[in-house]
UniProtKB/TrEMBL annotation:
Residues 2-234 form the ABC transporter domain. PANTHER family: HIGH-AFFINITY BRANCHED-CHAIN AMINO ACID TRANSPORT ATP-BINDING PROTEIN LIVF. The gene is livF2. Keywords: Amino-acid transport, ATP-binding, Hydrolase, Nucleotide-binding, Plasmid, Transport. Belongs to the ABC transporter superfamily. It comes from Azospirillum lipoferum (strain 4B). This is Branched-chain amino acid ABC transporter, ATPase component. Pfam families: ABC_tran. Its EC number is 3.6.3.-.
Amino acid sequence: MLKVSGVHTFYGAIEALKGIDIEIGAGEIVSLIGANGAGKSTLLMTICGSPRARQGRVFFEGEDITDLPTHEIVRRGIAQSPEGRRIFPRMTVLENLQMGSIVAQPGSFERELERVLTLFPRLKERINQRAGTMSGGEQQMLAIGRALMSQPRLLLLDEPSLGLAPLIVKQIFQVIQEINREQKMTVFMVEQNAFHALKLAHRAYVMVTGKITMTGTGAQLLADPEVRAAYLEGGH
């Protein structure tokens, strides 16, 4: 479904991604783990066209989307829930979800809204509340829900558990697993919580300073001594 081939991304003269090659098959959950500053979020943003890859190509369902504007990439079926949530704080929950549905098929809003509110009952309770007054966990639910409103075939999640209480983290990961299983949605997830990310993933990649250093199934990487030392046992 998604292929990133030889991608180099720069911020000015600083090379953030150094020849990234990844593939994500339809129906998979694929996790990307790595330390802060490794380039994980940059990869998700490069897939969405901002910043653009200076070298290499990005393909989605066989189409080269490397140079497409971000709104055209979203129209083709890729949605991102960004790091830090970035909801519209002055808008209500409903208005945020309406913003997510702009590129969806006409006439699908009520159906998709019901689906999102079923996944996140808390949002239904807060439907007319200003998003900025909600808790961090509720805002994360809204960020994911807003992305789902565009009816994506590929969902990009950037640090969905960041800063959340353990109980909320568990709920978020259960929803990710459910939309993958029930809706057959493909998920590419950047996550610092390596244990949860690898436990959930069909496959995973490890990124170190802008390079992919390891790949395997989630179970394989969970059991790998190097991964355990670096990401699961307090190492760096």
